[in-house]
Amino acid sequence: MAISLAKKYQGKLEIMPKIPIRSYEDFALIYTPGVAELVKEIQKDENQSFELTSRWNTIAILTDGSRVLGLGNVGPIASLPVMEGKALLFKFLGGVDAFPLPIKVSDKEEFIQVAKAIEPAFGGINLEDIESPKCFFILEELQKTLNIPVWHDDQQGTAGAVLAGLINAIKITGKDKNSKIVLMGAGAANIATAQLLIKYGFNPKNMILIDKEGPLYAERGDVDSLMFKHPWKYELAIQTNSERVKTIEEAFKGADILIAASSPEVRIDKKLIRMMNKPIVFALANPIPEIYPNEAKEAGAVIVATGRSDFPNQVNNSLIFPAVFRGVLDSRAKKITDEMIIAAAEELAKYAEEKGLREDYIIPRMDEIEVYYRMAAAVATKAVELGYARLKLSYREFLESAKERILRARRLSL
C-alpha cells in the first residue's frame, strides 16, 4: 500500500509559490530588478532574512541515514522516504516548511561542515536518524557554532515526549521524582531522556541505564574507555545507579518506572515486569515494542505506553517536534534549550490533565491539534524569557500566530 501510494503521488512533497503571479510585470517585483532591494537590506542586517525571505519558516531535515528507525544504516538515498514523511508531519502538525536533506558524508566532521555551509538558507536544522555516539558530537558542536536552532529529534523529541508522559503517569500512580527508574537501552533516545529527567529534577541516583553489556555503573570494566569513546554515556555511568546494581534482574527488582527505548530485537519478559513495584511501563521501540501492552498489564503494570498510535498512550516524538519548531521559528530563536523542551513537555502534560487523566490517557493524541499551538506558544515564550528570541511577543500573540499557521497548513493539506 505504501509503495503504491508513493508511486501514485511520486513523493510526498512539492513547492508552491506564495505570491500570486497575475501579469508579466509581476516578474519585475518578485525577481529582477526588484529583488535587489531585498538583497541590499539583508546585506546591511542579516536578521532581515527572517523578515524578507521564507527563511523564517524553513528548516532542513539533515541526515546521513546511518540509523533509520527499525532499519539501521540504510544510507542517505534510502533514507529519503523517511525524511519526506517527516517533512509532511512538520507541515501538517506544525505549519513548518521542512526540506529533506539526506547527505553523503564520510564522518562527523564532514557532516558538521555541511550543516555549517547550509545555515544561511534555513531558520533551523532538525538532525535525524544519525547513529550514536556520532549524533551527540554533531548536535553539541552545531549548537555551539550555529546561530539558528539545531536539535536531534531522536534525542530531544523522544525525551520531551517521555517527560510529558511521566509527569502525568506519576500523578496517577502516586510515584514521584525519587522513583526507581530503569532505562532499557542506552542509545540516543534514552541517554537524552535520562539527561532531561535529571534536568527536570528526577533523582539520578535512582536511575539505572542498561545497555548491551548490562547495567551501567561507575566501576564497570569498560567505563574508563567510555570517557573517550562515549563521554555522554560515561557521565551517566558516574551519575546513576548509586547502589551499583550489576544484573538486569537486580535492576528491575522493586523498580517503579521502565523506559525502554532499545533495538527492535530486544524483548522484555513478563517475569521482569512482575519484579517491579506496580510499575509505569513505557515500551517505545517501533514497530514492535519491547513488551506488548496486554503482556505488561498481565504482569502488573498500572500504566503502559508505547510509541505506536494503535495502542493507548502513544509516547512519540511526533507530539513534540512540530510544536517546538513552530515555537522557535515564530520567535526567530537562535537556540533550542532543555528549558524550552521542558516548557513543551509541561504544556503537553497540562493539556492531557485538563481533558481528564486516566490510565489509558496520560498524553494527548496526535489528532488533538490544539495542543500543538499551545506548546508552540510555550516554547516561543520561553525563548523570549531566556533571551534567545529575535522576535519578542506575548504568549497570547504567539498562540494566535501558531494557531493561524498550523490551521492554514492543515487546510492546504486536505
From TrEMBL:
InterPro entries attached to this UniProt entry: Aminoacid_DH-like_N_sf, Malate_Decarboxylase, Malic_N_dom, Malic_N_dom_sf, Malic_NAD-bd, Malic_NAD-bd_bact_type, Malic_OxRdtase, NAD(P)-bd_dom_sf
Which residue range or ranges hold the Malic enzyme N-terminal domain? Answer: 10-143
Sorted keywords for this record are:
Oxidoreductase
Give every Malic enzyme NAD-binding domain span. 155-384
Q: Which Gene3D superfamilies match?
A: Malic enzyme, N-terminal domain (3.40.50.10380), NAD(P)-binding Rossmann-like Domain (3.40.50.720)
- The answer on whether this UniProt entry bears the keyword Oxidoreductase reads yes
Q: Which GO terms describe its molecular function?
A: malic enzyme activity; NAD binding; oxidoreductase activity, acting on the CH-OH group of donors, NAD or NADP as acceptor
Entry-linked SMART domains = malic, Malic_M
**What's the family?**
Belongs to the malic enzymes family.
> What does the record give as EC number?
1.1.1.-
Question: Where is the chain membrane-spanning?
Answer: none
Pfam families linked: malic, Malic_M
Q: Which organism is it from?
A: Sulfurisphaera tokodaii (strain DSM 16993 / JCM 10545 / NBRC 100140 / 7) (Sulfolobus tokodaii)
Supply the name of the protein: Malate dehydrogenase
